[in-house]
Amino acid sequence: MPVSMIYPEFEIIRKEDRCIHCRLCERQCANEVHRFDKEHGRMLADEAKCVDCHRCVALCPTRALKIVKSDHTFRPNANWGEETIHDIYRQADSGGVLLAAMGTPKPYPVYWDKILVNASQVTNPPIDPLREPMETRTFLGKKPHQVHRGPDGRLKNELSPGLSLDTPILFSAMSYGSISLNAHKALAKAAEKLGICYNTGEGGLHEDLYQYGSNTIVQVASGRFGVHKQYLNTGAAIEIKMGQGAKPGIGGHLPGAKIAGDISKTRMIPQGADSISPAPHHDIYSIEDLRQLVYSLKEATGYQKPILVKVAAVHNIAAIASGIARSGADIIAIDGFRGGTGAAPARIRDNIGIPIELALAAVDQRLREEGIRGDVSIVAGGSIRESSDVVKAIALGADAVYIGTAALLALGCHLCRSCHAGKCNWGIATQQPDLVKRLDPEEGAGRLVNLVTAWTREIKEMMGGMGINSVEALRGNRMMLRGIGLSDRELSILGIKHAGE
Ligand code: SF4
Ligand code: SF4
């Protein structure tokens, strides 16, 4: 059955009385949906190519366009949904694995929405964040078990290298190649202005961005693309990527067509060669092997950089995190299964892993029980959508959070989930020069700064309401959380009481 038998998912509604035939939509759509029909003097649309990215809608000068979900339907069937039927048609047609981008759209529970935050009332009064200092500065890395002071009162502890953040938010790993250089520039500039860090992802670091090194986490993934001594020493911290929430247990693949020019140079692989990250690190099959890599990286950087180990949230995450904490790593980054990606097999993205909320609570609890919580910091990621998610994550035990999709949305992403096609009309998930230049790094950085500044204000307000004046005092403070509509088992894993208790 030809794919064309699939009815388009979206319909383009063009108000003919408003359309002035300026053909801007035709020029703006990299998917070549719109075209001008000279014979009849009107615009036409090939709706089958539309991914609902809103570019044409947003830029149409007369607001003549809108995209609607088609209500063309199969006979209703609770077991065989429309998407399932279409996927079978597609696979019968191509014989291939279905690819998808961004986080899973499946309706799994979002535990953030089933957790409520406390506020002070009569005793332990709230704090007004506009009048009183609120501390959002966060230090990531090993904490000493005991504080030792000399006779002069000075601290005698030798502190391990760590990361200092002005607010407990980091931009999560997105590689140059999966996103454009302008998107990376925007993230780097914003991280510098905000006093936080962005993350190179596994594609190496473009030489134009070395100047932002002190706000950069450089990643070492299984493919080791773009990894060399200068790269490692430029970053403020090094992240070993063992897994990713959107695709646990599998590697990555950037097609050779995208490995050109600066991307090939930055990744240190030949032009046109597929950039394949293997599923495992071929030198890591145990915690002892991981420890060797952690210490190799420390050695290569003179023991001056904290090492993060990033893992996907999977079933036995608490035991895995305990091993990582004992490997010598300074920070564990846990990526929940709702996290985004540039490209992943759809079945993996939608069915593998566990929610970050449960993983985070389980890890924090396990490390506390084992008396090693202070040996590592925890960064939680994988669908942190708003400032209240940050507050809940910290109260569940995170030291800081990674944000990826929220950062891309701030840059203009419209969540069309077509990043893997490489034709992002907003200049983010693309390497096409005409599309990349649509994203102005300065403007993008400004929007990212606004977003994180707004979230930080909201975090301060929520902390003030709880009568808490520092992120440090919120961390792991589960008494500040209550569950709503959760089972006893879920509450027990989250380590929180039900609302009303
Ligand atoms: S793909 Fe985007 S720009 Fe093209 S028609 Fe659809 S919404 Fe408009
Ligand atoms: S980054 Fe671009 S292609 Fe990817 S979801 Fe956002 S708008 Fe779509």
Characterization of the model:
With 501 residues, the protein is α/β, with parallel strands linked by helices. It folds into two domains: 3-96, Alpha-Beta Plaits; 167-470, Alpha-Beta Barrel (TIM Barrel). It is built from 16 helices and 21 strands. It has helices at residues 24-28, 55-59, 82-94, 181-194, 229-234, 261-267, 287-300, 317-326, 346-351, 356-369, 387-395, 405-411, 433-436, 441-466, 471-474, 488-494; strands at residues 10-14, 34-37, 42-45, 65-69, 99-100, 115-117, 138-140, 163-165, 169-171, 198-199, 216-220, 237-241, 252-254, 275-277, 307-312, 331-335, 344-345, 377-381, 400-403, 481-483, 497-498. The strands form seven sheets. Strands 9-19-18-16-15-12-11-10 form an eight-stranded parallel β-sheet. Strands 6-20-21 form a three-stranded mixed β-sheet, with helices on one face. A two-stranded antiparallel ribbon has the order 1-4. Helix 4 crosses helix 14 (441-466) and helix 11 crosses helix 14 (441-466). The protein is globular. The termini are far apart. The model has no long low-confidence stretch (mean pLDDT 95). Bound molecules: iron/sulfur cluster (2 copies). One iron/sulfur cluster binds at residues 53, 101-102, 408, 413-419, 424, 426, 428-429.
N-to-C span: 58 Å
The biggest beta sheet reads: 8 strands, parallel
Question: Which structural class is indicated by helix and strand composition?
Answer: alpha/beta
Provide mean pLDDT, rounded: 95
The largest beta-sheet arranges its strands as 9-19-18-16-15-12-11-10
